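Hey team,

Filing this mostly as a record. A colleague (T.K.) asked me to run one chain through the structure pipeline before their review meeting, and I want the input and output archived in the tracker in case anyone asks later how it was produced. No errors, nothing strange. Just documentation.

Input sequence:
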Amino acid sequence: MKRDARGWPGLFAGALLVTVWVCVSASAQTVPLRLNPKAPELNRRAPDLFDVRLETSRGAILIKVHRDWAPHGADRFYDLVRAGYYDGDRFFRVIRGRWAQFGINGDPKIANAWRTQTIPDDPRRESNVRGTVAFAFAVPNGRTTQVFINLRDNSATHDPEAFVPFGKVIAGMAVADALNSEYGEAAGSGIRAGKQGPLFQRGNAYLESHFPRLDFIRRATVLEPTGASK
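Output structure:
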């Protein structure tokens, strides 16, 4: 048999380079898509009508999303759900009889990757009545990932503040009403309160250690579209 001109050291070095390249490539492929907010797969147009099922620790909540109510909001919610962004997320701000808020990913790397990925404001078309779902925000054109369910008719306060519903709960409002509210504003509060730092720094590890009984989303799923996308 003819020996390779490089000799055994050369063969070993070549094999090592191939191994390193394979490992690096495999590692790159396992990086969650949701760590890349700019990816084309996370910036797609949503169907005109679609349902999202939230499988929570209390039961299932079904939301019907209307793109004509808030196109930017519907697109963002659609892409986040498809990417698995809300899976494992805590309902960190539940005020009984008022609202239930979620939308900070439990992995700080993912949460911070999206923290500044804002979308343009949508003009409000629907009122913040009981069961409607809207994005939370602190400043104009500042919506990112945080969403809340109106547990009552909040139109008197929320409509003037430009909270824009993009969908409505069509099944499971009893589940939403039953979400654990014992911690109130203490587990993170709203964006405007400036107390969400620990959630972005430590994620679910922080919430589990300080607020262990928070309810959470086991999995969020986009169901078959109920309307054609143009």
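Quick notes for T.K.: The first strand starts at residue 49 and ends at 56. Residues 39-222 form a domain with the Cyclophilin fold (CATH 2.40.100.10).
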